[in-house]
Design brief:
The protein starts with a helix and ends with a helix. The mean pLDDT is about 90. The chain has a two-stranded antiparallel ribbon with strand order 1-2. The protein has one domain. Helix 2 packs antiparallel against helix 6, helix 3 runs antiparallel to helix 5 and helix 6 packs antiparallel against helix 7. The relative contact order is 0.13. A hairpin with a 3-residue loop joins strand 1 and strand 2. By secondary structure, it is an all-alpha fold. The protein has 9 helices and 2 strands.
């Protein structure tokens, strides 16, 4: 039986992330910042889920937050997320993609799920802010990206993968090329899919790569 106190803690953490983003939006922070606050905060909270709830509950939460975001978009709520149209698709894909990632990788190794959520939350989130604020060299494949943002994504991904390998007891010097190669692949994936669709592919491909190298 699920521990309802843990479930309430998880819900509180998620709603705190949404609340912070809405507060910052009303304080006139740019939407590219507030949406990434949700992106990063949601990714970090998702990483903590195995400490609080079971896989079955994660699936229910994923469906619930997808419906919440769909409703908020149609009713023009949560403008800290939906005010930028290209990210609305990504916001709707965020919960289902993590739900699919959990279904595939949680039973195999919880660390894989956690690593995938951190790469989506932190690497993609930080890269988005860096690219929007400091990006000067833009390129477009399926959506607008910046070289600066992609470089940032690469290095944060390297950091996350190294951390997961270290926790798993497999961070050795001879795996450095594996880490760099894996991070490069994920950077290419992030570059290929724009307009929020990277939210679907990054965690699933991250999970696949982590499954292969752990």
């Amino acid at each position: 039986m699920e521990n309802y106190t843990n479930l309430l803690i998880v819900l509180l953490l998620f709603f705190l992330v949404f609340g912070l983003a809405e507060f910052l939006y009303k304080r006139k922070l740019p939407v590219y910042v507030t949406r990434k606050v949700v992106h990063m905060g949601g990714g970090v909270v998702a990483t903590l889920l195995p400490f609080f709830v079971k896989l079955e509950t994660v699936i229910i939460l994923g469906v619930g937050f997808f419906l919440l975001l769909l409703f908020s978009k149609r009713k023009k709520l949560l403008n800290s997320i939906h005010a930028t149209e290209d990210y609305s698709t990504g916001a709707l894909l965020f919960a289902p993609s993590l739900m699919i990632t959990a279904l595939i990788f949680w039973p195999k190794n919880i660390l894989i799920f956690q690593g995938a959520t951190l790469i989506l939350g932190l690497a993609d989130g930080i890269a988005g802010i860096v690219g929007a604020k400091y990006g000067r060299k833009r390129y477009k494949i399926t959506g607008s990206k910046t070289i600066e943002g992609s470089v940032c994504f690469f290095f944060v991904t390297v950091f996350v993968i190294c951390g997961i390998l270290y926790i798993n007891g497999g961070l050795t010097f001879d795996k450095s090329l594996v880490v760099l190669g894996s991070s490069l692949i994920l950077t290419i994936v992030e570059a290929l899919f724009g307009n929020g669709w990277d939210n679907l592919f990054i965690p699933i491909i991250s999970g696949t790569i982590l499954y292969l190298i752990l």
